[in-house]
Design a protein that fits this description.
It contains two helices and no strands. With about 90 residues, the protein is mainly alpha-helical.
C-alpha cells in the first residue's frame, strides 16, 4: 500500500468529527461538500425526470401538429384538384 493512500484514509477518518466540532460552535460552519453535492444531485435528479417527461410530451405534441398540418394540406390539395378537374383541367 502506498503512503499517500494511508494519508487519505487518516484524513477521511478525522473529517466527520472535525465537522461536528466546528458546527458546535457558533463562530463558523463546516460543510461536507460530498453530502451537499449528493443532496443537490438528488434534487436535480427529480427535476431532470420532470423535464425529461415534459420534453417527450412537447416532442409528441410537435410531431402531432406536423402530421395534422400535412394532412390538412393534402386534403385541401385534393379538393383543389377535384375542382380543377370538374372545370375541365387535365392531369
Amino acid at each position: 500500500m502506498c503512503g499517500g493512500h494511508r494519508a487519505e484514509w487518516i484524513w477521511e477518518d478525522h473529517t466527520v468529527p472535525l465537522h461536528q466540532e466546528i458546527n458546535r460552535q457558533s463562530v463558523a460552519q463546516a460543510v461536507l461538500t460530498g453530502q451537499g453535492m449528493m443532496r443537490l444531485f438528488d434534487i436535480l435528479g427529480q427535476g431532470e425526470t420532470v423535464l425529461r417527461f415534459t420534453s417527450w410530451l412537447a416532442l409528441a405534441m410537435g410531431a402531432t401538429t406536423v402530421f395534422l398540418a400535412s394532412y390538412a394540406v393534402g386534403a385541401q390539395r385534393q379538393r383543389d384538384t377535384a375542382i380543377l378537374r370538374a372545370l375541365g383541367a387535365g392531369r
